[in-house]
Amino acid sequence: MNVWKLTAANNLMKFEENPRPAEGALRVRITKVYVNSGDIPIYKGQWRVKYPLIMGRYAVGLVADENGSASFPKNTRVLLHNFLPAEYTGTEACTFTEDEYRICGQTGDGFLRDFVYVKEQDMTPLPEAVNDEKALLLPLVALAKATIETLGVQRGQHIAVIGANTLGIFVSRLLIYHQAAPLLIDNRKDRLDFARNLGVYYTSLGDEQLMNVVGTITGGRLADGVVYIAGAGSDCKDLPLQVCAAEKHIAFAGLSSVSFPLEMGDVVKKRITVHGVCDGTEYLESAINLIANKAVDLSAFCFATVPAEKIGALFAELSASPDRPADEVCVINMV
Predict the structure, then answer these.
(1) What are 322's strand-pairing partners?
(2) Does domain 142-277 sit in CATH 3.30.160.20?
(3) What is the C-alpha to C-alpha distance for residues 218 and 183, in angstroms, rounded to an integer?
(4) What distance in Å separates the CA atoms of residue 273 and residue 331, rounded to the nearest whole number?
(5) Res 98 pLDDT > 50
(6) Which of 31, 60, 65, 104 could connect to 82 by a Cys-Cys bridge, CB 3.0–4.6 Å?
(7) How far are the Cα atoms of 108, 225, 256, 272, 306 from residue 266, in angstroms, in the given order?
């Protein structure tokens, strides 16, 4: 089968391999892969990874063989989970705890390949109401749901969301669904315009007028909570503590390899509780229902699809121009 491996920074190559079937795993044909913002710094060598690495964090596929499984018979459409338990092979020093995991396409091999062997607990069957393109966004919807649950958002609260990428928009839409009032903050006007078209009615640039906007929306108070979207490409890293009221919560959500400064003296002074959220796997079923019932509307997104033979050219293009249109979802058709 074909696999695409990153052998060094900016060097993505195609190989042919015949992997051994994993015990207790089903063979899945990869059909589509979503290229997200985290793939680009990995490709460019900005994040430390172990080479060679099969890239691709988000993927859908088809169960390829008759297997006797009641839940995953042949041709079942599935979403592949991208956070998997770390397994000790006995060949390397054991440095992880039982709670750690590997991230597909980053700390472990991903889905830029024809086939993968997957255990039943590491994939989710897809209903007909959610097509392949929409299914690729399910992990982000689930992560948005996990973030809101972590914050314990209540009806009527004002929540600042810093970073208007796809995840930031999903968090904002789900806050509205939960009858809270999000204020979406970003340094890109086109992102904020797109968010407003999707019904996110409070938006602001992260400039000198922001605190006036916060005060106007909250009635002179600060936000009841903050979500900072890691990896959104925002320059608003000093804002979470500025816009968050005392004794409230801040959730840092998104890509786990992104670093962000946090003045711990201000955290202590304002008695802020800080959370980190990077995996929403347990909320995938909820995400499917939210999309199937159109509580999260994906109709405005543009799914730009390229064939597998153009994978190398695609990553070179994305590396050269990382600031893509706000509505674009880049998809690789693997079949």
Answers:
(1) none
(2) no
(3) 10
(4) 37
(5) no
(6) 104
(7) 36, 15, 23, 8, 47
